[in-house]
Amino acid sequence: xxxxxxxxxxxxxFNPCQYExxxxxxxxxxxxxxxxxxxxxxxxxxxxxxxxxxxxxxYKKKGYTAKSILSFCKxxxxxxxxxxxxxxxxxxxxxxxxxxxALRVMGVLNPLTIIIKNMGIQTEMILIQLHPxxxxxxxxxxxxxRKIYIDKYDFKEKFD
Length: 160
Description:
Helix content is 31%, strand content 14%. By secondary structure, it is α+β, with helices and mostly antiparallel strands. The protein has 2 domains: 2-101, Orthogonal Bundle (Glutamyl-tRNA Synthetase, domain 2), CATH 1.10.1160.10; 111-154, no CATH class. Helix 4 (66-76) crosses helix 5 (87-101).
């Protein structure tokens, strides 16, 4: 409002056009710099790049790619009207980008050792692709023996 008052009271022949757009609001996210600053200053989070923060540096630390964030921004576009974008939409762009480009590895979070009794003691080396659709990304060698690990939540002693 002050900016417009100054333009009206200046004696210049050309007034620049000014457009104001709404800010990006995401569901389940606090984007107020004042509130985020409070979290950082009171050590509730470990800085601006803490993965719980809705900042670009935090998203980078979480594994969000620049390409996925750019695709998200291009898709939602700009608006003068205030709106709230579902965070799931951003996460969808991240998943799509990672699905195309990320290497695949496996891990067992709650390991339970299983011994396969009807298999010999030899260890076989199995060649596994790092990406299911992109052979050019390479392979890794995984040992396979009678001793394997499964998640303890996938094991059941008695069948229903």
